């Protein structure tokens, strides 16, 4: 079976480093567990490494962690579904919100079980995914403060996820200014200003000041050791904390070019292979679209991915003959990681060494 090898020791190191480096800027870390479906061993590793809370986009993952007795404040980082309000106030302490209709429902549901629910209002800063337009925020805050069972904990923003807009001095400065203005207008103190995700790291470490931002929600940088804007390695972090291993099931010399009339494959038109005018060693690995995103795999040096389908990954390796039964280890990007985590065909192998 293909397997994800998850190294808790490396995840612990990455988390501690990021918590320490951001701590020197007065920024706390919420550990985002969505890419690992709230896997309890990883959740506990993040908590033991200094994150202040766990954050996930899916209520199911938060339930999974609660059922496994993971002890933490839980944040829901996708706007709650109105229809799930009752479940959310039961399992989630804080949710990121943009709709008064939803907050109203959360207030009712919290009241029904005698609880208070905390919210962070998300502000649109240009990436055009979730967020309240800045000019509308004051009215939304005014209404939010009136709900009996809602605590307004702070404001936040999210960039780089839909349109790839970089967090910078300008948009982060705007978020700080908005926090100041809300505090002044309402005579309150927004205790959390959550600036964004792993793509905010470059802006923080450029060192030109972080203003009111005192929290980031980090997933990819912890798990993969890279910043998402240019996918550069973050110095001192492990980029191989999670690896994907699969087995060779065919190994033969074959022509470099296919023969016959070419039409579409199951996944559209395939790139035409390079003509190398000779037979070349090609191997098939038991790994495909059903297991991961083949485009997001980095093979070992000397091995090239030359094709993929639902269940097969075709590789060429000139230097080394890959015998049937040999295991090959790939690095994964975010897309390959989440697809492999979700796939029932991929074993999750957690080790701590
Ligand atoms: C996924 C997500 C994050 C974490 O993003 P990473 O790039 O994995 O650090 C943070 N905030 C929100 C709202 C998200 O959806």
The largest pleated sheet is described as:
8 strands, mixed
> What characteristic shape results from the CA principal axes?
elongated
| Annotation, overall tally of beta strands | 16
Strand content: 15-25%
Helix percent reads 25-40%
Could you tell me which ligands this complex binds, including any ions or cofactors? pyridoxal-5'-phosphate
What does this structure look like?
- Strands 1, 10, 11, 12, 13, 14, 15 and 16 form an eight-stranded mixed sheet that branches. The protein has an eight-stranded parallel sheet with strand order 8-7-6-5-4-3-2-9.
- The protein has ten helices and 16 strands.
- It has helices at residues 8-23, 40-48, 59-67, 85-91, 100-112, 134-144, 169-186, 201-205, 220-224, 334-342, and strands at residues 3-7, 28-32, 53-56, 74-76, 94-97, 117-122, 150-156, 192-194, 215-218, 242-255, 279-285, 297-298, 303-308, 313-317, 327-332, 347-351.
- The radius of gyration is 23 Å and the shape is elongated.
- The protein is α/β, with parallel strands linked by helices.
- Helix content is 29%, strand content 24%.
- The chain starts with a strand and ends with a strand.
- Pyridoxal-5'-phosphate is lined by residues 32, 34, 57, 77, 158, 197-199, 217-221, 228.
